Each structure stands twice: as C-alpha cells, then as structure tokens.
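Human:
Focus on the backbone:
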Amino acid sequence: MDEAHSSSEEKGDRSLTALHGFLAIEFISLLIGLAMPITPSKTGSTTGLADWLIVDPSYLQEVVVYFVLTNLLFVVLGAIAWLWSRFGSSEG
C-alpha cells in the first residue's frame, strides 16, 4: 500500500492536470483582458468592443468584456480542437 501511495504522490507532483490547463487559460485571459483596454489602436479608433455593449464603459467594464470574449474564443478553439481530434484524423 505504501508503494502505490508513494508512486501516486510522485506522479501527482510532476504531472499536469486539466485543472492546471484551465488555470493557465484563465490567467492568460485575465492578462489579455487587462492589456486590451490600454493598448493603443493602430487604426486610430477610440472605440473598442466594450463600446458596442456598454455606453461609455469604465476600464473595469472593458476588462470584463475582453475577459469574457477571450474565454469564449478559447472555448471555440477548444471545441474545434476536440472535434478535429475526434472526427478529423481518422485513418483507414
């Protein structure tokens, strides 16, 4: 029993789980959400995506909009990757 317990501890300490992936994606989404409202537009536009949803949004409201949209983008990309792995790469 000790051998099984110790081997699972060693394996658990070094292996990445779905929770690690989820937390990494949420952290990336948060960084994108924080950076997008302060990033200058290359086209000179003063309106962003949050302006389409909220009239005169504050910085925090813009962060929330970009955070949600980034998460939706990751969900769509994850669904495409899952469908591709499930149905797209069949051999034979």
The mean pLDDT is 82.
